[in-house]
Design a protein that fits this description.
mainly alpha, two-stranded antiparallel sheet, 10 helices
Length: 260
């Protein structure tokens, strides 16, 4: 190799610093954890909304996750394992996402000025994702911790009692809007970033994705509000017997499951 090939602008090729692959790896990990959390969020919403079908349906879904139909006995610890896994993914996702947040007040002012000047729709969506993500780090961890520590306190009556008698409904209401906005925007941005569902016309594809994003957000918000309303109604009607465990009429009651 000639001396000209060995050097570029006076710097030896062997001395040139290699570009780190870690930023790309962390970006991929952020996208992956975000996708997992968004899909879990949608699944969770469908599961808890079974209360709209009937108390028995919600009870059956709860016991399914506790292994009741596989082992003939409920093991709430299975729920704790799932919740612990989701909590770990949430913390990792938040850590990775914080890399892109404004690090100080000066960066915050510069970003806000840029956002207000450009009036760019996707930039505004990213800012809403930052705000809702910040809220979720506190709201979602509180909810997940409660589920982690009390995995057996899930059911038509127990969940409704927590919402009404336990006064958790304000947190769940704010959490609903934060998680649906954050998750919907996140999935839209993942599709745009990685080129998923992109057609021949990128602009038209982005417009369709944005429409789909708002349709899905509206759907899950409506489903969430109806579900929360159902738990409020059941909890209000059941307030005099708060703590009672629901058991379907076709199931032999467990003598250990009694109201305190």
């Amino acid at each position: 190799m000639s001396s000209n090939q060995e050097t570029i602008a006076g710097v030896g090729l062997a001395d040139r610093p290699r570009k780190s692959r870690w930023p790309a790896r962390m970006d991929l990990a952020q996208s992956t954890t975000g996708l997992v959390l968004a899909l879990f969020m949608w699944g969770h919403m469908f599961f808890v909304s079974t209360i709209l079908i009937s108390k028995d349906a919600m009870w059956a879904v709860t016991k399914m996750f506790e292994g009741y139909f596989f082992f003939g006995k409920a093991f709430p610890g299975i729920v704790s394992v799932v919740v612990a896994t989701i909590l770990a993914i949430l913390v990792l996702h938040a850590f990775l996402a914080m890399r892109k947040f404004p690090a100080n007040y000066r960066q915050y002012r510069e970003f806000v000025a840029h956002k207000n000047l450009m009036h760019h729709g996707d930039t505004t969506l990213w800012w809403w994702q930052v705000l809702t993500g910040f809220a979720l780090f506190f709201l979602a961890t509180v909810h997940l911790y409660q589920m982690l520590m009390h995995p057996g306190a899930i059911g038509p009556y127990q969940s409704a009692d927590r919402v009404w008698t336990g006064s958790w409904w304000p947190l769940y209401l704010v959490l609903l809007f934060a998680v649906e906005l954050h998750g919907g925007i996140g999935l839209y941005r993942l599709c745009v970033k990685w080129g998923w569902l992109e057609g021949k016309d990128p602009a038209a594809s982005r417009a369709r994705l944005k429409t789909a994003k708002w349709v899905l957000t509206a759907f899950f918000l409506a489903l969430g509000l109806l579900t929360l309303g159902a738990y409020l109604k059941i909890g209000y009607e059941h307030r005099a017997r708060a703590g009672e465990v629901y058991t379907p009429a076709w199931v032999q009651p467990n003598p250990m499951e009694k109201a305190p």
